[in-house]
Amino acid sequence: MPCKRTAATSSISITAKGYAVDSESTPFKIFDFERRAPAADDVVIRIHYCGICHTDIHQVYNEWHMSKYPMVPGHEITGIVEQVGSSVKRFRAGDHAGVGCMVDSCRKCALCKKDTEQNCADSCLTYNSTELDKVTPTYGGYSNIITVKEHFVCKIPKNLSLDAAAPLLCAGITTYSPLRRYNVDKNTRLAIVGLGGLGHIAVKLGAAMGAHVTVISTSESKRDDAVKLGAKAFLVSKDDEQMKTAVNSLDLIIDTVSAAHDVGPLINLLKFEGVYCAIGAPTKPLEIGAFALLMKRPTITGSLIGGMKETQEMLDFCGKHNITCDIEKIEATPETIKEAYDRTVKADVKYRFVLDILNAFK
Ligand code: NAP
Ligand code: ZN
Ligand code: ZN
């Protein structure tokens, strides 16, 4: 039996339709539910597109052991504003808008006050989470409409197409945030590990910031793509000879890999006191041999998406540099979503699946 999740208030009044799973082993099905009617500070968005992030796959299959069902995944959302509440200032009907991984946070704690809402202890994720009342479930972007607090809605620059911009709302900000934190510029020797959804946009962003970008991949077949995306060098991680050529050369490694892997050989590529930043979230712990730590004295760190202010900054940066994602836009049906999940797990996507939501629920 699917666990039943009910809303805390009776103010829900917009009829919504989406795709949900009832458990880790059941297929997607049509799911009818309700979104709240807009409060004064809410924006209602007609969803046009939603990217498929590898996080959706981890969550649907309960790989992180924290899934709640029924689950409507999706946190790379773009669409058009349909309605706004009376105090909304930045949006009006017809605007291009985006929603990422969060839909609320306490907005009072020190982290919220310094625009780091993503690390707030009370942050509300777009799906597989609850609203601030800790009871009302949140449902994501594999659905036709969403009501979101203005603070958690971003403006999509008009020159970016809504389909190819959708993955910026997670993959874009998750990579942009550490690139900025570690001051990436023309003097930075940067490596991106894993050329998938996060990895490919990280290459574009790093190159636009002027860095010398190396892609480290398991797939020799992605070499030409990496160069077209802006990389200056490409290493196959399983080829020791290729890896040796880059020892002691890197300032910053951003690791986007979604599965368990040995981090020691990556640390060996860092300069003394270089930075290794994990953004991938494999289900098993990362392995790091002690000697890599002793010899390199590296900073080993991680990063979770980014705050709302920084997400808008990233979108404006992409607007200025005309950066969007390389996507495979697909019809949204339970079958096509399953096939896209299977192909993503096999690293067989160039480089992000984006669901055509508008046409699925016409
Ligand atoms: P993705 O599109 O599937 O890309 C992951 C890439 O990792 C693959 O393309 C592949 O690249 C590489 N890879 C896969 N299996 C591997 C293995 N066994 N060994 C070595 N490399 C392997 O996934 P994504 O959407 O970019 O997400 C990547 C990870 O980031 C996921 O775990 C996701 O949950 C996490 N994530 C974290 C945040 C955050 O806030 N920190 C935000 C979003 C997503 P190659 O073919 O080039 O080797
Ligand atoms: Zn994501
Ligand atoms: Zn907070």
UniProtKB/TrEMBL annotation:
Domain spans labelled Enoyl reductase (ER)? 25-340
Write out the entry's keywords from A to Z: Metal-binding, Oxidoreductase, Zinc
Could you tell me which PROSITE patterns the record lists for this protein?
ADH_ZINC (PS00059)
Q: Which cofactor does it need?
A: Zn(2+)
* Domain of life, per lineage: Eukaryota
State any single GO MF term.
zinc ion binding
Family, as annotated? Belongs to the zinc-containing alcohol dehydrogenase family.
Recorded protein name is Enoyl reductase (ER) domain-containing protein
